[in-house]
Amino acid sequence: MQINELIDLKDTLRTRFPDEILDASQIQLTGTAFTNKGDVILDLRVNGTVTVPSTRSLEPVELPLDFMIDEIYVLTQAAEERYDETEAVFIVENGVIDVNNTVAENIVLQIPMSVLSSDEAAGKNMPKGNDWEVLSAEEFEQRKEDNKKVDPRLAKLSELFNDEDNDD
């Protein structure tokens, strides 16, 4: 069976995964579903866009989706054992394969651990508050170097500390 469908999972995604998904475009599914020895093999390409919160500021960030779903659905646990451990095999419950549920769960799995807006990725708009701020790795290293520089008026004191370290 050839699949070429446009599905709307916005409400499902926002209801089931409210902390991970803020919004979703319609999702384009293309691929095939076929049977082999009573098992259903699903090969789908998923395209669309979801809006997720930035992991740094919680600001909305659009995340394009383009991934494959390769899953096998079997009726019994005995049939499940025919497949290698590396394959995604699921036992069908109630004789129905819910493709929308499958796509929704796979969309959530595609969200990276770190999601940043383009400004945040460029190091702009870093959050800060009273007596604290977020630094990029480069800024952090630069501040470490700046802190190592000794005021010329205190240079003699730093030599004193070096001598004491050698005595131990």
Features:
6 helices, 168 residues, alpha+beta
Structure in words:
30% of the residues lie in helices and 33% in strands. The chain contains six helices and eight strands, in the order βαββββαβααββαα. The strands form two sheets. Strands 1, 2, 3, 4, 5 and 6 form a six-stranded mixed sheet that branches. A two-stranded antiparallel ribbon has the order 7-8. Strand 7 and strand 8 (132-133) form a beta hairpin. The longest helix is centred in the last third of the chain and has 13 residues, at 155-167. It is elongated, with a radius of gyration of 27 Å. The relative contact order is 0.14. The model has no long low-confidence stretch (mean pLDDT 86).
Structural class: alpha+beta
Distance N terminus to C terminus?
A: 79 Å
Q: What's the mean pLDDT score? A: 86
What percent of the residues sit in helical stretches (DSSP H or I)?
A: 25-40%
What is the β-strand count? 8
Order of helices and strands: EHEEEEHEHHEEHH
Assembly of the depicted chains: single chain
Q: Sheet with the most strands?
A: 6 strands, mixed
Question: Which percent band covers the strand fraction?
Answer: 25-35%
Contiguous helical run count: 6
What is the CA-based Rg, rounded? 27 Å
Low-confidence stretches: none
Q: Tell me, what's the shape?
A: elongated
